[in-house]
Amino acid sequence: MDQNTITINGHAYNFDPGQTILEIAQQNNIDIPNLCHLKGTRATGACRICIVEIEESWGKKLVSSCSAPAKNGMVVHTESPEIVKYRKIYIGLMLDSGNHNCDIGSAADESWTDFQIAAMENDQKEELCPVWGDCELQALAYRYQVKGRVSGRHREPLVLPVEDDNSFIYRDMSRCILCGRCVAACNEVQVNQAIDFGFRGTNGKIIAGTGTTLRNSSCVFCGECVQVCPVGALVEKKNLGKGRPWETETIRTTCPYCGVGCQQLLHIQDNTIMKITGVEDAEPNLGRLCVKGRYGFDFVGSQDRLTTPLIKKEGKQVPASWDEALDLVAKKFVEIRDQHGADTMGVLTSARTSNEDNYIAQKFTRAVLKTNNIDHCARL
Amino acid sequence: MTNTIADLETSDLILVTGSNTTENHPVLSTFMKRAALKGKKIYVVDPRRIKLVDLAEKWLRPNPGTDIAWINGLMHVIIKEDLHDKAFIEARTENFDAVKDVVASYTPEHVADITGIAAEDIIALARAFAKAPAAAICYCMGITQHTCGTDNVKSLANLSMLCGHLGKPGGGVNPLRGQNNVQGACDMGGLPNVFPAYQAVTSDQARQSYEKAWNVTDMSAKPGLPVTEMIEKAHAGEFKSMYVIGENPMVTDPDLNHAKKALANLEFLVVQDIFETETTAMADVVLPSFCWAEKDGTFSNTERRVQRVRKAVNAPEGVRPDWDIICDIARRMGYDMQYENSHEVYKEICSVTPSYRGITWERIDNIGIHWPCPDESHPGTPILHTTQFTRGKGLFHAIEHQSPAEQVSDDYPFVLTTGRVLYHYHSRTMTKRTEGLNQMSPECFVEISKTDAKKLGLNTGALVNVSSRRGKISAKLQVSHKAVEGTVFIPFHFARAAANKLTNAKLDPTAKIPELKVCAINIEPAA
Ligand code: SF4
Ligand code: SF4
Ligand code: SF4
Ligand code: FES
Questions:
Q1: Fewer C-beta within 10 Å: chain A N or C terminus?
Q2: What pLDDT, in 10s, does the model give residues A153-178?
Q3: Ligand 2 pocket, A36 CB below 6 A?
């Protein structure tokens, strides 16, 4: 069979039948901006930001690259003046559709101070959009130099109350651009079926359950929707406004809870975990996490951590130095082993600690205590 | 797991039993649910109407403790209708005839009597399972936490071998491991009878090679005691000391009142943990250690994939890594045990653990590798038993149904099963510190069917006393469509209403797993 090839911006690429233009571009590190595409789910074609130009015998046509399948011999351009013109219009419309009170969303002719005052009034909140600087729409507006509330297209910013009855997700539908990624994430990726498109058309809105809050719907707070939302409509509530990308370092690790072993990115600022996200495309979880893996990290910096050895003296546990504590342990272990025999001693290691810790625990039991009385709580 | 997590999305049929997957292995369940969306069939066999039932082809509801019966029933139908994979049985297994004889009497009608599952449902599932090109079995504690847990697991392996569903993509018998590193703890030899990589402590050859590697002599050839028997001996005053690392048996052990007495009987108890727990409270010495985010190391997940854990934050002043504390005690006892860092420990693991030998930290920097992986050029083994079983031929086990150790009576008319909820983990030492998790699941509850609640004349929120032959707790009632008449469910996470004050410490004779899934209880309104 002949190779399938497609030409993008003057370069030829091979592809597998069935791949979309966007997939091929992403595979080859060609940047096509997009706001509604979500890997592994059905294309919705909602944002039209991903449009590209295809050369046909009769001229040019614009298609959405996220849904258009590639054809052999196709010639594609990703940043023509025509494309840029339309992208600017779409971005402008999205900025105007809601309360995008970052500076890019401000009226073209307003001064910064006027804008801020107006933003605060509109928002009933003290601060700017919490994802300022970490928003795909803002980034695109900057890239294509689009401002919102441009004369003629201006309408009152939509202001809706922020949903506030859960501890995990800050849900402000006045910043929703109806891209539908959250709906796809909830229904097709995590399959929790908690949210959906409400009324279509100009009153379109994402609704939880039959129009209630996430807390009262079948939402299980996996946070997948937050991870995929391109704007400030769905935001992590923990450490809100902190831990923005340029302030944090990310460390990849494995979830400490269940045996799935999800791959996580820990976002660290000032020696503190600000948030946790799934590592996109990495097995076994392919970017997904559950509520414990995403939000259950407060124990790490807890004030209640044990920080000093304790020794029981006259029935009460009192702080001790490491030397004092470990000398006592070693002395007692030797005493008991010599008096009663190694088989009266046992070690309970843990299915929660690392392989390294477990290995050392069993080596200690077998080589030093000289018994095989070692087990962990897996059976329970 | 014999197969991988991602593999589940390629199964034609997934049989889920004794696993409340959406709550206990949430992300793994997404692969099952996505399979269902693509039209693949899920069958749930579980005493509770778990959430996954919403997407399942069918829910079969067995009476608790009757798993062998329905599994034998499926095999009866498959053999009778000549749907078994004769080529696979011939080439890859032995002892098939013994199973054939035993299951002969497990007619669908007979099985229906024991299990409460309708005969036609047994027949339908048997046909679907046998005819599916690739069918996976997933199970969890609902299968293993019984006096017959080991036999339950063997029965599931019988069923899979019978249809040739082992050793291929989309198939397999997949235990879903509860805690993050249960797999690793077992692989590392955190078990009374084996060294790392499951080499028997009774084998002279294995013992000699570890004595050499560890530079010691006279290691014990006698298999050790499982935790449940250590507790038993301590209770009887025959056990003198325990060193508990990162566990909280004072909430998670069966028959807690008994466990408490046992620990109190010890001459010397050392507990190493990150927080004060019900267990540290009883210790003679408490040692504070690093937590997950402060460590470099590895975990091995339920699909045998060895993955990196990385230090992300500095530990609080004064605490030390678990391995380092243990080594220090060893040195003070006169044994030279010293490592530069955890990577050094891992390198030693590779050198003495054949199945991990090829898995270096460098290789798993980006993506974990499934053991067995005998050398550094080996890609790892995502699917086990593709060409042969560990022992060569797969052995069929002929197994008869036995009734659970404890039966309901007039005084204790309900069957209790215990388990976890989505928002908490184990004894909650970690999860209770996250406000939102407590908000979603603040306290213990007694999940009961509508019919039973009506009989008691009580509703959701009513405070009840729950008692068994061993203990008593109080908690609020939660009427739920998940529960079936006669059976109630209580999560074991909560120390204040610890479900394990009620449960039965009676053990499976082989795996020494307590029967946490079936015990008889009574429910009364709290005065
Ligand atoms: S948190 Fe998870 S379950 Fe809840 S709406 Fe978002 S994707 Fe759906
Ligand atoms: S909430 Fe976010 S992800 Fe969902 S439709 Fe709106 S903008 Fe898109
Ligand atoms: S994120 Fe959830 S599903 Fe994944 S390993 Fe952690 S606890 Fe398990
Ligand atoms: S990404 Fe293609 S239409 Fe939105």
A1: N
A2: 445 556 677 888 899 999 998 889 99
A3: no
Q: How far is the CA of A206 from the centre of ligand 2 (A)?
A: 7
In this structure, the answer to whether residues A336 and A290 fall within a common structural domain is: no
Give the bridge partners for A245, in sequence order: none
Host domain of residue A350: 310-379
Residue A46 identity (one-letter amino acid): A
DSSP conformation letters of A273-324: EEEEEE-TT-TTTTT---HHHHHTTTTTT-TT---S-EEEETTEEEE--HHH
State pLDDT tens for residues B460-472: 999 999 999 989 9
* Cβ contact, residue pair B346, A356, below 8 Å: yes
Contact A168 B436 (CB under 8 A): yes
Q: Token digits for B33?
A: 């649910």
Q: Are A20 and A13 in contact (CB under 8 A)?
A: no
**Domains along chain B with CATH numbers:** 6-176 (3.40.228.10), 414-525 (2.40.40.20)
pLDDT band of A52, cuts 50, 70, 90:
very high
We report the CATH number of the domain holding residue A259 as 2.20.25.90
Does residue A232 form part of some domain?
A: no
Rounded to whole angstroms, how far apart are CA atoms B174 and B5? 9
Domains of chain A: total = 3
Residues of B in contact with A286 (CB under 8 A): 6
Domain stops at, among A44, A64, A79: A79
Interface pTM, i.e. ipTM: 0.93
In a domain, A224, yes or no: no
Query: Nearest Cα to B237, choosing from B270, B261, B269?
Result: B261
User: What does the pLDDT average to over B39-59?
Assistant: 96
Residues A305 and B518: their CA atoms lie apart, in Å, by 36
Q: Which residues are CB-neighbours of B24 under 8 A, at least 6 positions away?
A: A258, B140, B176, B178, B419, B420, B422
β-partners of residue B286 are: A310, B271
Residues A348, A334 share a domain: yes
Which of A136, A172, A234 is the pocket-test mutation for ligand 2 (most atoms within 8 Å of CB)? A234
Q: Which residues on neighbouring strands pair with residue B138, listed in sequence order?
A: B16, B174
Q: Indicate whether A200 belongs to any domain.
A: no
Does A291 reside within a domain? yes
User: Could you report the per-residue pLDDT of B332-353, keeping only the tens digit for each?
Assistant: 999 999 999 999 999 999 999 9
Query: Tell me, what CATH number does A61's domain have?
Result: 3.10.20.740
What pLDDT shows up at residue A339?
A: 96
The one-character DSSP state at B389 is B
H helices of chain A, in order, are 21-27, 81-97, 112-123, 136-143, 181-184, 224-228, 291-295, 322-340, 355-363
Same domain for A29 and A75? Answer: yes
What does residue B463 show for φ and ψ, rounded to 5 degrees? -80, 130
Which ligand 3 atom minimizes the distance to the CA of A278? 1
Judge if A321 and A365 occupy the same domain.
Answer: yes
